[in-house]
Design a protein that fits this description.
The protein has about 525 residues and is an alpha/beta fold. The chain has 18 helices and 16 strands. Helix 5 runs parallel beside helix 15 and helix 8 packs antiparallel against helix 9. This is DUF1574 domain-containing protein.
C-alpha cells in the first residue's frame, strides 16, 4: 500500500533542521541574556561588605559600576596600580570642609599601563572631571625587558602570552584582548578568552563567592573568620589580623554579652582591668585574673568577669603568661620579630559596621611599627625583609626584577617601548575627550630610588613624557622624592598608612591648580 506524502522528503528534512537551528539559537540567546542579567547586573546589586583589598577584581568591577551610575559636582578619579592604592587616602581627603572635589579610586592591584589603556572608556564613562594617573617605575612591566647588547629589548611574544593569562585580561577585557592578539596567542589561551568573552559566569567565577561568604560571616558568623580587624582599636595599637600587643586597652562602645579571643598557646593567663572612663585609667573599678586552658578561639563572657552593677566602659586585657611572636602566628615572615598578645574577634567591643570598605584603608600596627623604629633599625629590618636573598624568594621575585631593571637603566639609552606608548595612548584619549589629565610619578623609597636617580635614562624618560603631555595642555608632576623618610615606606614603592597620610596633603595641594582651573 502506497502513502501519499504532501511534503517532499528533502523539504521535510530541511524544515526539521531549520526548527533545530531556531531552537538552538533561541536557547543560546536565552542563556546569554540570563548570564548578562544575573552575573553582570543582579549580582552587583548584592551588598558589598568586603574589606580593604580583600577581593580586588570583584571590588574593581563593583566600584566601576558604582561610579558609572553616580555623579559628583566635581569628581577627581585617581587611577593606577596598588602603588596608587597605597599612596593616597581619599577618605581623608574627602573629609575636608568645603571640598572643591570628590576623590575616588579607579584602581586595582598590578594595574599596568596596558590594563588602563583597555579601561580608558570605562574610566571615561565614570564621569571624571579630572583624571589623575599615579604611576611608578615598578608599573612598567620590567620582567618583559631584556638587556641585549647594551640595549633594552621588549619581549613582545612572551608578554602577549602571559598577559592573556592574567586576571585583568581573563576577567575584565577578554574580548578586547582576544580581538587584538588572537594571531599571536596559543590555542588554549584563545579558547579560554573566547569562553570568557561570551559568558560572565566564566569570567567572574574566580571571585563569585567572595561577597557572599563575607556577607554570611558578617551576619551569621561568630566573628572568628575575617580578613581585617574592624572592632574597637586598642590605645596601644593592633595588627590588621586582630592580634594585640602584650596589653590592649579598649573603649568598649558596644558591650555585647559575649566576645571571642584567640590564643596561640595553651594555658594563657590574662589580667582583665575595667575602668569607668579614659580619665580614670589609674583607678580600675575591678580587676581579675583568668586562665584559658585551650588554645585557639575561646568564648569570653563578660558576666563571668565583672558584676553587672559595676559601671565600666574601658577594658584592659594584659597577657601574664608567655607571649607568642608575630612570626609564630604568621603575621610576618622576615625582619625583626615582635611579641603579640591575643587575637580579638572581628567586631570586638563595637557595633558591626557593614558599610562598603573595599577602598577604605585603616591604620594598623603592621605599618605603624615601622615608623616607630630608628632609621638605622628600619634599614636593617628593611634589608632583611626586602633585599636579602630577593633573587631566590618567590614573593620578592618581581621586586628583585624591578631592582635589577633600575641598575640596567643606568647603562642604556632611553627608547620608547610598549608600556610607555600605552601611557601616551591614554593621554591622547583624554585629550580627545576634553578631560583634564594629570600624570603623577608616585613617591619612591629613597633606598631604592638612589639606584637610578641620576641616570640619563630617567632624565630622558621624564623629558619624553613631559613633552607629550604639555603639547596637549596636560600636566606631569614628579613626586618621586617628596617623601624622604624611609620609614614611611613598607617596601620600594608602597607607602605605609602613616606615609600615605603624610603624602595626602602634598598630593592634594599639587592638584589644586588643575582642580580650580576647571572648577571656578
Amino acid at each position: 500500500m502506497e502513502t501519499e506524502s504532501r511534503i517532499p522528503l528533502n523539504k521535510s528534512r530541511f524544515g526539521q533542521k531549520w526548527k533545530v537551528f531556531v531552537v538552538t539559537c533561541a536557547l543560546f540567546g536565552g542563556i546569554l541574556f540570563l548570564d548578562n542579567l544575573i552575573f553582570s547586573k543582579l549580582y552587583f546589586l548584592f551588598p558589598n561588605e568586603t574589606e580593604w583589598d580583600s577581593s580586588p577584581w570583584y571590588n574593581f568591577i563593583f566600584k566601576t559600576k558604582e561610579l558609572q551610575s553616580t555623579k559628583d559636582k566635581h569628581r577627581t578619579i585617581i587611577t593606577g596600580s596598588s602603588v596608587a592604592l597605597y599612596s593616597v587616602l581619599p577618605d581623608r581627603l574627602n573629609q575636608k570642609e568645603n571640598p572643591i572635589t570628590k576623590y575616588h579610586f579607579f584602581s586595582h592591584v598590578a594595574m599596568a599601563p596596558t590594563d588602563l589603556d583597555y579601561y580608558k572608556k570605562d574610566l571615561l564613562d565614570s564621569h571624571p572631571t579630572l583624571v589623575v594617573y599615579l604611576l611608578n617605575f615598578a608599573d612598567l612591566q620590567w620582567e618583559y625587558q631584556d638587556l641585549i647588547d647594551g640595549k633594552l629589548k621588549f619581549n613582545q611574544k612572551i608578554w602577549v602570552t602571559q598577559f592573556g593569562e592574567r586576571y585583568p585580561a581573563k576577567t575584565i577585557y577578554p574580548n578586547s584582548y582576544l580581538f587584538d592578539h588572537w594571531k599571536e596567542l596559543p590555542r588554549k589561551t584563545i579558547s579560554k578568552l573566547a569562553a570568557k568573552s561570551l559568558f560572565y559566569v566564566s569570567r567572574f567565577r574566580v571571585f563569585f563567592m567572595d561577597p557572599i561568604e563575607v556577607y554570611i560571616d558578617n551576619h551569621f558568623g561568630s566573628g572568628r573568620k575575617y580578613h581585617l580587624y574592624q572592632g574597637e582599636k586598642p590605645m596601644e595599637g593592633i595588627w590588621s589580623k586582630g592580634w594585640t600587643k602584650e596589653s590592649a586597652t579598649i573603649l568598649c562602645s558596644d558591650k555585647k554579652p559575649k566576645e571571642s579571643l584567640f590564643f596561640q598557646k595553651t594555658n594563657t593567663k590574662l589580667l582583665f582591668r575595667f575602668f569607668k572612663d579614659s580619665n580614670s585609667l589609674d583607678k580600675p573599678v575591678f580587676e581579675i585574673e583568668k586562665s584559658f586552658v585551650r588554645s585557639g578561639w575561646n568564648e569570653l563572657d563578660w558576666s563571668s568577669l565583672i558584676q553587672s552593677n559595676l559601671e565600666w566602659n574601658i577594658v584592659q586585657i594584659k597577657v601574664l603568661s608567655e607571649l607568642s611572636t608575630a612570626k609564630e602566628v604568621k603575621l610576618i615572615r622576615y625582619g625583626r620579630d615582635e611579641s603579640v598578645g591575643v587575637r580579638l574577634s572581628h567586631f570586638f567591643c563595637k557595633t558591626t559596621n557593614l558599610e562598603n570598605k573595599s577602598y577604605s584603608r585603616d591604620s594598623y600596627w603592621d605599618d605603624t611599627r615601622l615608623v616607630t623604629k630608628t632609621v638605622s633599625d628600619f634599614k636593617e629590618d628593611y634589608s632583611e625583609r626586602m633585599i636579602r636573598d630577593a633573587g631566590t624568594r618567590p614573593e620578592l621575585m618581581r621586586l628583585h626584577l624591578v631592582r635589577e631593571a633600575k641598575k640596567n637603566v643606568n647603562t642604556v639609552p632611553f627608547e620608547p617601548w610598549w608600556e610607555l606608548n600605552r601611557i601616551l595612548s591614554i593621554s591622547d584619549y583624554f585629550y580627545q575627550h576634553k578631560i583634564p589629565f594629570v600624570l603623577v610619578l608616585s613617591p619612591e623609597n629613597p633606598i631604592e630610588f638612589d639606584i637610578y636617580k641620576n641616570s640619563e635614562w630617567r632624565k630622558d624618560w621624564i623629558t619624553n613624557l613631559k613633552s607629550h603631555l604639555e603639547q596637549r595642555g596636560q600636566t606631569l608632576i614628579d613626586h618621586t622624592e617628596v617623601v624622604s623618610d624611609v620609614r614611611y615606606f613598607f617596601d620600594p614603592h608602597h607607602l605605609t598608612y602613616e606615609g600615605a597620610d603624610f603624602y595626602n596633603s602634598i598630593f592634594s595641594k599639587s592638584l589644586e591648580p588643575q582642580i580650580l582651573k576647571f572648577n571656578p
